[in-house]
């Protein structure tokens, strides 16, 4: 089953279709070993369950230890619901209704990758290889293809698929007007080159570039990752063969040679390597309690508590929080408010705990945050101004205390309006960019959010007092862009979460790389007493 899934990733067999942005490497893959029978995945839009694969059948045991694995595309920014159904198989029929249904379990892929191996976990997960290979080639005495000059050669690399087809995985640059080109070194993920099979055939085609796109075929040769890994040697000098030319000419030897000049491999750590090594994602939410939100008791207010539907604040919090919570083992989250007058003396605060407990602002899960938010609306008075810097600095203090890669902090700010302390917030963001933290801002209501776009820093990096932020750590989206006119809030919130969370893994990796922090080795999968695992983890 997993071979089929991998082979369908990107069957781009023509070099003309090759897109260097999307064609090189598919999504991060995680490999799951489960003690269950049938895996179903759920579509985000339809919510329908689709069968993904089945394990092999193990007869006559109450403790099956399945060998077959599932390989799925993993996306941090999506809530990927999974269902595992277990059957007692009575015959060889593929029809599940013919067998005894024993039970089922529901979870998310995030829960599996975010949980340490333990006696309570039925699942284990491993990552496919994330090594990257850097190599350089030159060629000698290639066939001359141009009438008025020498050739303009380039090479196209293909990985072989299990069905005998080939998928393009790299194309070199064109070296103009030479029969002895030296191409620039290039780096490619090992998985894109051979899918983790070091002996799998790699085909390389050599072409003469033509402006009109009708590139002339010079010849090809085959190799494998294992051969290339030998580095520069007599084994890595390849004859370029043009089969048609060879059949026509008796004295044909080759159409030139290609030589591997250098080869090296480097481990590229991914977001999941750190998560499996024990890094925790700490989630904090900060909610805007300024008066511009409107009186919470009136239906026009952005804080209005409709008994039949969540308001924009609650929807945004739930959409983002339900995904991030899978990466925090204790599910206890600090929840803050800003811009309100607090009882009993009416002082204005821009950094108050929603649960009213200064010593312990933590709420139990996303539901706990929502409960504390609802209670706060009954006790505080909406006021102002809209200051972000205090809550940014609040989380930054915690992040500054843990810079060893064991924890990463994500602050979600939900706000309705124009920021009042822009200079201080910019300074807070520039300082926070040096720390293991990211900031998500969701703008609710109909206000202009020009200042938020500036804080986002996608086009121009945020700066303060002449200092540029070391990393881009802010992602802003306006909530109104995700409101589904058909009323399908589940789908619209999934889209919102996807957009605001998509940058977190790269921001996370950029911090770890600049600090030279490597992931801890993942703990071995939990093995019940008396069980022996024979699983080969790639």
From TrEMBL:
Keywords on record: Calcium, Metal-binding, Repeat
UniProt-listed GO biological process terms: cellular response to calcium ion
CDD domains: C2A_Copine, C2B_Copine, vWA_copine_like
Pfam families: C2 (PF00168), Copine (PF07002)
Domain VWFA span(s) in chain numbering: 282-508
Superkingdom classification of source: Eukaryota
GO cellular component terms, semicolon-separated: plasma membrane
Sequence ranges assigned to domain C2 in this UniProt record: 108-238
Keyword Manganese: no
Stretches the record annotates as Disordered: 517-538
GO molecular-function terms, A-Z: calcium-dependent phospholipid binding; metal ion binding
Transmembrane region(s): none
UniProt xrefs under PANTHER family: COPINE, COPINE-5
Family as reported in the entry's similarity comment: Belongs to the copine family.
Full protein name: Copine Vb
Species, as recorded: Oryzias sinensis
